Amino acid sequence: xxxQLLVLGVLLAASATVASAQGADGKALYExxxxxxxxxxxxxxxxxxxxxxxxxxxDAAFFAKRSDADLVKGIAEGKDKxxxxKDKxxxxxxxxxxxxxxxxxx
Length: 106
Hints:
Number of helices: 7
Oligomer: single chain
CATH superfamily: Cytochrome c-like domain
Number of domains: 1
Largest sheet: none
């Protein structure tokens, strides 16, 4: 039994190392933290737009006006009614979300 637990522990540690080496999962983080307001495809629902008229869709026009640094800053610090995520996500997680949302504008 002890040998099986040791092997399981080694496998779990290796799995965690591989996951951290791959970096943060921007899509999973987006779905957990951003999808509620920004929508699954980066297009906010009519109800969300009514509550926050300044919210924009993640489309080509949105990304044309913003660098990657702008996206990271916006996620970290928040804007208008969007709360900041700098205390909820690590910098690499914020960067992963910024990278992921660029895929929504295509």
